[in-house]
Amino acid sequence: MNFDFSDEQHQLRDQARRFLAEHSTSKRIRQVLDGIAPYDRAMWQEIAAMGWLGAAVPEEYGGAGLGYVGLCVLAEELGRSLAPVPFSSSVYLATEALLLAGSEAQKEELLPKLAAGDLIGTLAWAEGSGNPAPQRIKARISGGRLTGTKWPVPDGGVADIAIVGARDEADRVVLALVRLGAAGVHPETLTTLDPTREQVKLTFDNVPAEVLPGEGWPALEQVLDRAAVLTAFEQVGLAQACLDMAVAFAMERHAFGRPIGSFQAIKHKLADVYVATELARSNAYYGAWALTAGPGELPLAAASARVSATEAAFLAAKENIQTHGGIGFTWEMDCHLYYRRAKLLALNLGAAPWWKDRVVAALETRNAA
Fold first, then answer.
1. CATH code given to domain 217-368
2. 7-116 maps to which CATH number?
3. Secondary structure (3-state) at 327
4. Are 199 and 349 in contact (CB under 8 A)?
5. Which residues are CB-neighbours of 333 under 8 A, at least 6 positions away?
6. H helices within 136-254, ranges in order?
7. Which helix (H) or strand (E) holds 122?
8. Is 281 helix (H, G, I), strand (E, B) or coil?
9. Mean pLDDT, the chain, as a whole number?
10. Res. 2: pLDDT tops 90
11. d(Cα 150, Cα 148) in Å, to the nearest integer?
């Protein structure tokens, strides 16, 4: 079986890499890091114009119809470039939640706007620190009104809509659509390691909300699985960028009359990063296949991709700093930008131990069957 990308997908990758190399520069990333802007609006508008936001959205809802594999290609390049835009929140989370659980009317109204970049969306499932679990959801929706607090919410300060996990009058977990410009929504920006991906606490005080007709917790789990695969591609792109940066520096930097890359201590570290990155890439490809193969394949593939990519991204970001030595820890170098993003991505869908448990659970289910 051939798991390689098609010629068209390779062309999409080349286009994305050229665009992001030109636009997602260190200077523009640092403008967001320094708080000059919450995200790069100009880049976001150009990304929307190229149709990336609707990559996996069906054409009848205004999408580009590239499918999930095309979206995976874009995700890897966005991870490589550290693009400071709310892509993952709007595309991996809000859009996928609407596709899975939204009514036909909600899809027809919102998906074209999300695909065009006219709306930014997010998913609000967490209520404090901890991994996803139905018992952790305490927010309440009654009579079309939502009350509760959600945090951290990715890009919650710039999003126009949020899909919120809550409990209805029958104490069932449901997903609800909330317009974040409504009265009673109170955002509070949180301090995190990576300000280029904003995290917010959202307090809902009797806010109008529309319940999505799809199953609540099962739909939320599927959204997290899909997002795990797409995030894994971001992490693979990040790991590869760190490896490339470390190798380039090791070939250029000399000590004792030799490039430091010729020393075993450096070579072995970078070889470990290469192996971890290629293992993560293999699992991410498995996840990309599972996104289109059917829901039965996705839980194991998503959890495997998530675990291996999280480990690879952190290892690559850490060893990139170590390879650069003392200068790698300085503000002027870009190494810390990758380290910040690696740490954030490791936690934004639940921590690695929770995903390891899902690998075990998926294997047990498969063996029992």
1. 1.20.140.10
2. 1.10.540.10
3. helix
4. no
5. 324, 327
6. 216-252
7. strand 121-124
8. helix
9. 96
10. no
11. 7
Tell me if 120 sits within 8 A of 39, measured CB to CB: no
Compute CA 175 distance to the chain's CA centroid, rounded to the nearest angstrom.
20
Is the CB of residue 162 less than 8 Å from the CB of residue 125?
no
Integer CA distances (angstroms), 58 to 72, 111, 191, 218, in order? 16, 9, 36, 22
Q: How confident is the model at residue 367 (pLDDT cuts 50, 70, 90)?
A: confident
Q: Of 120, 129, 127, whose CA–CA distance to 156 is shortest?
A: 120
Query: Domain residue spans in the chain?
Result: 7-116, 121-214, 217-368
User: What three-state secondary structure class fits 295?
Assistant: coil
Q: In the beta sheet, which residues pair with residue 154?
A: 199
Is this model's pTM higher than 0.90 or not?
Answer: yes
Q: How confident is the model at residue 366 (pLDDT cuts 50, 70, 90)?
A: confident
The CA distance from 246 to 249, in Å, is 5
* Location of structure tokens 């998906």: 111
CATH class in words for 121-214: mainly beta
Q: What distance in Å separates the CA atoms of residue 351 and residue 283, rounded to the nearest whole number?
A: 18
Contact 53, 62 (CB under 8 A): no
In whole angstroms, give the CA distance from residue 40 to residue 267: 37
pLDDT value at residue 4: 78
Residue with tokens 């930014």: 120
The strand pair at 199-208 and 185-189 is best described as antiparallel
| Structural tokens at position 88 | 């993952």
